[in-house]
Amino acid sequence: MKIRAAGLLDLSRIEELHRSTDSNLKEAPVPAARLWTLLSSTLSAFLPLAQETLIYVAEDGGKVVGFIQASGTPIGLDLRTAKVMQVLNLQVVDSAESEDIAAALIEHLGNQALQRGAHRLFVRLPDRDALLPVFRLRGFRQYATEQILFAEQVHRGITPAPDGARALKRGDTRHLYQLYRKVTPQHVSQLEAPTYRDWRALHGEWTGRLGAGGSSKEDVVVDRVELVGWVRADRSSGAQPHTLSFLALPEPPLPDELADVGLKLLGDSEAPVWSSLRHYDSHMIDALRGRGFSVLLTQLLLVKELALQVPVQEKGLVPIFG
């Protein structure tokens, strides 16, 4: 078996492999789960060759038997400058060698990413994905769990607007980053956004990966000398559900108040709504559950360190004698 970079002549076979997975998704009992998988950065979110992605294929006997695709983080970042990459897709033929093919593709991508200067690989996987053991055996470890909450019809609450609620304004970004650091476990923030600059680069993806064309966004923060809460309502004008994104200190009744603020921002729309929250956002998950949301699916967030990062030693003063 040979692993090589994909070319234009491989595109039809790559799309054929991807469609085979897409047909399996169509059998999912909840159509919204399939839509999330196709639109988010979950594994199997295919991007065309024209995008800024790396695609490698596994070839056996002159036939493409699998492919892997990755992009810079955030998606669309110039691969020449990407220090962090995300696996978007891994598809292999259904055979007795499927796991071996997948493992070889993962290993090849890691080697190529390291040669390009990347030092970390991320991947999102549904919690029951058959490829999960393959990633774990290739050095990926789980650092967070993400739950996608979904409501066909929401139950709007009656809590008043929280004290200090106002529209997001220019100059709030650094304060929003400080809030992110407060509500995010250190081991997660150190991986995803250890600096304000990293967080700004990741901000568009982190605050709602589904940002669809034709949607309109509105942000509200809760300002009590420092920011203690944030909500974004991303209203979709198409067939997609609306999206709510949150950051909130776990201080009752703030989570319930923010949930109601977000639903009010959506107006009288009766369209479905979803929200992506991490395991450490349990206060917001409970608030949404109380308003008609249920867990649509659970995703595992995995990371692999491609190179050991050794901090540069600070220069100290050395006494001179003589």
Give the ordered list of helices and strands.
Answer: EHHEEEHEHEEHHHEEEHEHE
CATH superfamily (homologous) name of the largest domain = Gcn5-related N-acetyltransferase (GNAT)
Low-confidence stretches: 206-214, 310-316
Stated plainly, the CATH topology of the largest domain is called Aminopeptidase
The CATH architecture of the largest domain = 3-Layer(aba) Sandwich
Structural class: alpha+beta
Q: What does the main sheet amount to?
A: 12 strands, mixed
As a percent range, the share of helical residues equals 25-40%
| Shape verdict | elongated
Number of domains: 2
Number of helices: 9
State the separation between the terminal residues, measured CA to CA. Answer: 67 Å
Roughly how many Å is the radius of gyration? 22 Å
Oligomeric category: single chain
Mean pLDDT: 83
Query: Could you give the order of strands across the largest sheet?
Result: 1-2-3-4-5-12-6-11-10-9-8-7
Count the strands?
A: 12
CATH class of the largest domain: Alpha Beta
Approximate strand percentage:
25-35%
Write the layout of secondary structure elements.
Layout: E1 2-5, H1 11-25, H2 31-39, E2 53-60, E3 63-72, E4 84-92, H3 98-115, E5 120-126, H4 132-137, E6 141-151, E7 165-167, H5 173-183, H6 186-192, H7 196-206, E8 216-224, E9 226-235, E10 242-248, H8 254-265, E11 273-278, H9 282-289, E12 294-305
Which key phrases capture this entry?
322 residues; alpha+beta; Aminopeptidase; 2 domains; twelve-stranded mixed β-sheet; 9 helices; 30% strand; elongated
Structure overview:
With 322 residues, the protein is an alpha+beta fold. The protein has two domains: 2-147, Gcn5-related N-acetyltransferase (GNAT) (Aminopeptidase), CATH 3.40.630.30; 154-291, Gcn5-related N-acetyltransferase (GNAT) (Aminopeptidase, 3-Layer(aba) Sandwich), CATH 3.40.630.30. Helix content is 30%, strand content 30%. The chain contains nine helices and twelve strands. The chain has helices at residues 11-25, 31-39, 98-115, 132-137, 173-183, 186-192, 196-206, 254-265, 282-289; strands at residues 2-5, 53-60, 63-72, 84-92, 120-126, 141-151, 165-167, 216-224, 226-235, 242-248, 273-278, 294-305. A twelve-stranded mixed β-sheet has the order 1-2-3-4-5-12-6-11-10-9-8-7, with helices on both faces. Strand 8 and strand 9 form a beta hairpin. The N and C termini lie far apart (67 Å).
